[in-house]
Amino acid sequence: MDSILGELKKYNCWDGKSFDAGYERKDYLEQIAKFINNKLVKVIIGQRRVGKSYVMRQIINYLIEKMHIDPKHTFYLNKEYLVFDNIRTSKELEQLFRKYLEHFNISGKVYIFLDEVQHIENWESFVNSYSQEYTGDYELFITGSNSELLSGEFASLLSGRFIEFRIYSFSLFEYSGYKNLEINKNTFLEYLKSGGMPEMFSLREEEMQRHYIESLKNTVILRDIVQRNKVRDIALLEDIFKYITINIGNLSSISGIIKYFKNIRRKTNFETLSSYIGCLRDTFIIHEVERFNLKGKQILSGERKYYLGDLAFKNFLFGFSPADIGNNLENYIYMQLLRMGFEVFIGILDNYEVDFVAIKRNKTIYIQVSYLLSETRTIEREFGNLLKIKDNHEKIVITLDDMKFDNYEGILHMHPWELR
How many CA atoms lie within 13 A of 329 on its CB side? Predict the structure, then answer.
């Protein structure tokens, strides 16, 4: 443990230095800072490589620089680093943490940061023990790349004693801030094509960007899904991901996808297909959106839509063409609503569909998304579907038209870069 503690010193701020924490994710930092100095475990989850580790290091910098916490009272371990491969279990983590406490003769509160904690066996017992320790003062922050982090034993042990923060890839506004660009249609179209994966921004050549996204996709598939879930048919998992990616924004059902694979002579069944889609969803690489009956106020079974956590997976792996702009735009609006803290559904009213029903506490927004309002029937459909909803909640049509129309019977016409 002495040698590992020596390595750990390189990755902590114990000598008084600050982390090089990259572009500041102000919105996330402000959200999390509100909950510092209580016993709630802060759980930071999101797709691999969207910047969770940077957010965690920015929190540590905030503690040291803004709250004047002694750097030696912060403990940071990132299980993605190969040097910490020997920390495999909660017992080994406990030994390392005790060694740290003894080495610095720590007395007083310690802020514990565990990055990609799911790679430590039985990590839940360590987190539960120290978050509830009454003979010492500890505050825990953990990250993970799988939604199952919040299920099972952890949820049982810490029911009601943790708070979740979901991190997404860079928004349009973070992207433009990082690149020092004005927020306008040109910047939006550039973002719509490139996506918001932060490590992509330093890769200038398109081939390098494609290689990076391919490598990231393979890591998610092979490490986060295949190894974790003991998936047998990797080729089928890859093909399901491809099918969903190409069909983002289209209504899909398990039976419909089975029929598609049957037509191309690929054998599968309901249980396997449903399980594999669930595995993809758990890594946040895809998102599943259910239909919501606006009359009965209930979720409908059967068909649903899928969207990508970041459009880079579609554009760099399967191509980007003018025909994709409508669905890519819809994907953008969905992800932006998630970033804004909304729970999002597809609205169903009789035989009509509303692209998004966004709900947050007592606020509901109905949104229609269209590439352009170039034809009378398009205008009638997008505005008409919203007019059929007889309530006073906000209604918005979002398009890429150069001209913005006046509000029509209370319906707002908006450009996508204005949604924030």
Answer: 26
**In contact, 143 and 115? CB cutoff 8 Å:** yes
> What tokens does 175 get?
């992207």
Tokens 């620089």 correspond to what residue? 65
Q: Degrees (nearest 5) of the Cα angle 140, 146, 149?
A: 45
Q: Using one digit for the tens of pLDDT, what is the confidence trace for 287-329?
A: 999 999 999 999 999 999 999 999 999 999 999 888 889 999 9
Q: Are β-strands 286-293 and 343-349 bridged in parallel, bridged antiparallel, or unpaired?
A: parallel
Average pLDDT over every residue of 40-48: 96
Residue-wise over 298-320: b if at least 16 C-beta within 10 A, else e?
Answer: eeeeebbbbbbbbbbbbbbeeeb
Kindly give, in sequence order, each residue whose CB lies less than 8 Å from that of residue 164, ignoring residues fewer than 6 positions away: 43, 45, 150
Arithmetic mean of pLDDT, 13-18: 91
Best CA proximity match to 166, nearest among 40, 286, 340, 304:
340
In whole angstroms, what is the distance from residue 233 CA to residue 217 CA? 16
Q: Which helix (H) or strand (E) holds 386?
A: helix 376-387
Q: Walk me through the domains of the chain, giving residue ranges and CATH numbers.
A: 2-166 (3.40.50.300), 172-418 (no CATH)
**Rounded Cα gap, residues 159 and 332, in angstroms:** 33
Angle at 279 between CA 274 and CA 285, to 5 degrees: 115
Closest alpha carbon to 149 in 162, 131, 130: 162
CA torsion through residues 42, 48, 53, 54, sign: negative
For residue 295, the surrounding DSSP H or E stretch is none
- Rounded Cα gap, residues 187 and 391, in angstroms: 35
CA 298/CA 73 separation, integer angstroms: 48
Structure tokens at 32: 């999390």
Q: Residue 106 in contact with residue 69, Cβ under 8 Å?
A: no
Number of DSSP helices (H) and strands (E) in the chain, helices first: 16, 12
Burial category of 134 from C-beta neighbours within 10 Å (exposed 0-12, middle 13-18, buried 19 and up): exposed
The pTM for the full model equals 0.96
> How remote is the C-alpha of 129 from its chain's centroid?
28
Going by their DSSP bridges, the two strands 110-115 and 138-144 should be labelled as parallel
